[in-house]
Amino acid sequence: MRTGSQIVRVAFTYIGTVVGAGFASGQEILQFFTRYGWLATLTIALSSILFIWIGIKLMLMAHDLKAASYEDLNRAIFGQRIGNAISLFMMIVLFGITTVMLAGGGTVFEEQLHLSYQTGLFVTLVLAYFVLSRGIGAIMTVNSIVVPIMLLFSLVIVVYTWHSPSSGNWLRITSDDPLEKIWFAPFLYTAFNLAMAQAVLVPMGASIQNRSVLYWGGLLGGAGIGLLLLSAHYALSAQMPGIAQFEIPMGNIITRLGSVPQVAYLLVIYGEIFTTFIADAYGLSQQLQQRMKLNPKVILISILALSYVISQIGFKILLSALYPLFGFISVVWLVLMIWRNRNRAM
């Protein structure tokens, strides 16, 4: 029973770390998958395989190396010089994503709850400090609460779409985009999310003693991410092409379901923002602890304070400026990691 519980906690933490605000809004799924028509079903399958394969590999390598942070892992994979350079860049990326997620939390409070942007930032920071000061176990507990809500929400959307006359669109819609663009999309999406997820997957892999827990947790988590992608794609496809004009495509679907699903949707969006925020802030703090001989709480407070300052720029501006660059670099990281470890057994 204890082993089964650990597997589920690992899986939920993996899912919660990967799934963020862009996923909940539907915009990520629309841009990387649904816009490409029926082929998106195949590219989602490819992305799911990568999430399972690389996710398990990352955690098992971290377990075997007893890596304190992803910097230790990158040094082992790429060597001291290249590993340090990659880790330094990833540290910058993590901080960038941390500020984007914090800004996203403020935007939810402002646009959905009609409270001030600053209130959203403050609430998110206080909750994050409470969780992060308690370590990886607390992060896994938060994900064990948030992820089931995400899964339930996805099930509701699938059931609603099932009765739609256009529910078969996910197997019929075609795209004029070139095949190379369609098949590159899942690699870009998976690479970016895995590069960020290593901030939590590595310390989680090192902290859990049982390798089989990591293997099955990675398998279940990667498959869960794939099912969430497929369910969102299924729902969005039924509303194509009109749904593509909305900034928050999933929100347009939810408004038709009534007030209770709308409240659940709000919880899902904020929960996904929060789990990504604490994951990236934790990974960043772990790496800084290896570089700076300061009290861990001082480092944590400094990260949260600096992310608050940068988040004043705003969610949309940060998102559009940082994500394309981070996505490209993440693909390079993924290719190098697969190449360097092609002969290493799982």
Automatic annotation (TrEMBL):
The chain crosses the membrane at residues 7-24, 36-56, 85-109, 115-132, 144-162, 182-201, 213-236, 263-282, 294-315, 321-339. Keywords: Membrane, Transmembrane, Transmembrane helix. Coiled coil: none annotated. InterPro entries: YkvI-like. The keyword Nucleotide-binding does not apply. The keyword Transmembrane helix applies. This is Membrane protein YkvI.
